[in-house]
């Protein structure tokens, strides 16, 4: 095999590895979105990441590491579903929040972008928190956003699988 052929094959395999890793990540993001939906259905909060409801039905902010919680906002639900506050800055929680932001502000017509710089990512998480906390926001709208995000993850999965299939058939035809 010629040197150029070996280089092209390495590049093809590296691209295949990137697509496969992204497919695995999208699978995990789908699980987090489903878990966040369950959290929101159980109890949805505004103005705080997590809250407990007292005997009088009033919500009070809590740190979930010091006990449980009854309600969570959109961001808190995602963080909890990804593994809790200890992993809030981890890739799975952050990439899930990236996808939700994309679903809300960019929509399914635009391709899902890569990993934003830390400052941009922090601003986007703040955007999601502000969106959640709007006075007229409803739990149904939060659930609809999670559903739209899941549909976006599914569309991205289909796109990557098609790209993988096309790349495989091209390499077989050589």
How would you portray this structure in words?
The chain has helices spanning 3-42, 74-82, 91-105, 118-133, 139-172, and strands spanning 50-53, 59-61, 71-72. It is mainly alpha-helical and 174 residues long. It has one domain. It has a 3-stranded antiparallel β-sheet. Helix 3 (91-105) packs across helix 4.
List keywords for this structure.
174 residues; mainly alpha; three-stranded antiparallel β-sheet
Chain-averaged pLDDT:
91
With helices defined by DSSP (H or I, 4 residues minimum), what is the helix count? Answer: 5
Total number of domains: 1
- Using the alpha-carbon principal axes, give the shape: elongated
Cα Rg: 20 Å
Strands across the major sheet, in which order?
2-1-3
Structural class call reads mainly alpha
Low-confidence stretches: none
The count of strands amounts to 3
Which strand-content bin applies to the residues? 5-15%
Succession of helices and strands: HEEEHHHH
Main sheet characteristics: 3 strands, antiparallel
End-to-end Cα distance, whole Å, is 13 Å
How much helix, percentage-wise, in residues?
55-70%
Question: Short description, anyone?
Answer:
The protein is mostly helical and about 170 residues long. The chain has five helices and three strands.
């Amino acid at each position: 095999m010629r040197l150029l052929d070996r280089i092209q094959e390495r590049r093809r395999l590296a691209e295949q590895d990137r697509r496969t890793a992204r497919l695995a990540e999208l699978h995990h993001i789908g699980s987090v979105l489903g878990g966040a939906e369950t959290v929101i259905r159980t109890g949805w909060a505004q103005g705080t990441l997590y809250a407990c409801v007292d005997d009088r039905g009033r919500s009070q902010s809590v740190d979930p590491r010091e006990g449980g919680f009854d309600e969570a906002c959109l961001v808190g639900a995602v963080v909890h579903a990804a593994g809790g506050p200890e992993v809030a800055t981890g890739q799975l929680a952050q990439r899930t929040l990236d996808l939700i932001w994309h679903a809300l502000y960019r929509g399914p017509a635009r391709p899902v972008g890569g990993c934003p710089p830390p400052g941009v990512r922090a601003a986007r998480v703040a955007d999601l928190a502000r969106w959640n906390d709007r006075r007229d926001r409803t739990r149904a709208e939060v659930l609809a956003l999670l559903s739209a995000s899941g549909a976006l993850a599914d569309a991205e999965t289909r796109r990557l699988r098609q790209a993988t299939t096309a790349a495989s058939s091209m390499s077989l035809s050589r």
